[in-house]
Amino acid sequence: MAEYKTPVLIIGSGxxxxxxxxxxxxxxxxxxxxxxxxxxxQLTITNMIENFPGFPQPISGxxxxxxxxxxxxxxxxxxxxxxxxxxxxNTRPFECSSEHHNLFSGxxxxxxxxxxxxxxxxKNETKYRGFGVSVCATCDGFxxxxxxxxxxxxxxxxxxxxxxxxxxxxxxxxxxxxxxxxADNALQERIKKNRKIAIEWDSVVEDIxxxxxxxxxxxxxIKNVKTDQVKTIHVNGIFIAIGHQxxxxxxxxxxxxxxxxxxxxxxxxxxxxxxxxxxAGDVQNPRFRQAIVAAGSGCMAAMEAESYLLKKNQDx
Length: 316
Ligand SMILES: Cc1cc2nc3c(=O)[nH]c(=O)nc-3n(C[C@H](O)[C@H](O)[C@H](O)COP(=O)(O)OP(=O)(O)OC[C@H]3O[C@@H](n4cnc5c(N)ncnc54)[C@H](O)[C@@H]3O)c2cc1C
Hints:
17 strands; 7 helices; FAD/NAD(P)-binding domain; 7-stranded mixed beta sheet; alpha/beta
């Protein structure tokens, strides 16, 4: 068991956490990042990133996050591989205990624990993740220009992803386990009018089919839950759009959240309902789940933490 003290304790090592760390370190605040189980965050499970500025060629998610980690360490951020399991928001400094029985105390806290995409749980979903299986049309839609793709889900996200993908793909099949969509009426109308989108009602994905060399998806098997009939659809990409889960369980009952569990922050700010506690990245942003947005809000959180500490006249 070790004890760590810092003016700025950052929970999470995705783009939001690393960016907050870089800014806080360059302000002389000696930040500590507790990385969590997924060092580097969600991007580490994706194969190719083309939309993070500064990289003229596609870069792998792991490489991008490893570069961010090294940049953070180079400017003086201390990164501890551990997971926070409990936080005392009543003490000052805030006290956090960890899975490895370490104690972290921070005069300010930046929460950057992200959100996790929900997956179907199929064996081949993991195998082809980043090679035809995706949870983000904005991120990966471009790679499926002129190809057939499927979207799984029936809510607003699935409808939006299907509409977005119809700009690139030659055909989009929306697969929904019920006989009507949950998406807003306006989105449903746009789906109905779009000749490049068809819906497979009452259907679930049973398996994802593909090749090993190269690793790529060639189709999906879907089952109609009313008739039990199974058929294969030939697609090169499958987008799972069944929702995201913010990683906020440990903050429940302390921080204000929306009904889905995303942390609420003040408008145009990363401030939460507790002074000195800031939230950045996907954990407070169900709408713009993109790395560049998370990085931007990490920067905001570090700057707001610095102002908070200055006001409190902390000696660091
Ligand atoms: C498959 C996939 C592909 C994507 N492709 C792109 C893309 O091409 N371009 C793009 O801009 N965006 C893409 N995204 C979205 C992007 O990954 C996210 O918007 C971004 O990672 C959010 O950053 P974040 O820092 O908020 O959180 P995350 O990246 O989710 O990081 C959260 C961090 O918090 C840590 N953590 C969680 N709980 C704890 C705890 N209790 N204690 C300590 N640490 C904790 C985790 O270990 C992790 O390090 C993709 C997402 C996925 C899933």
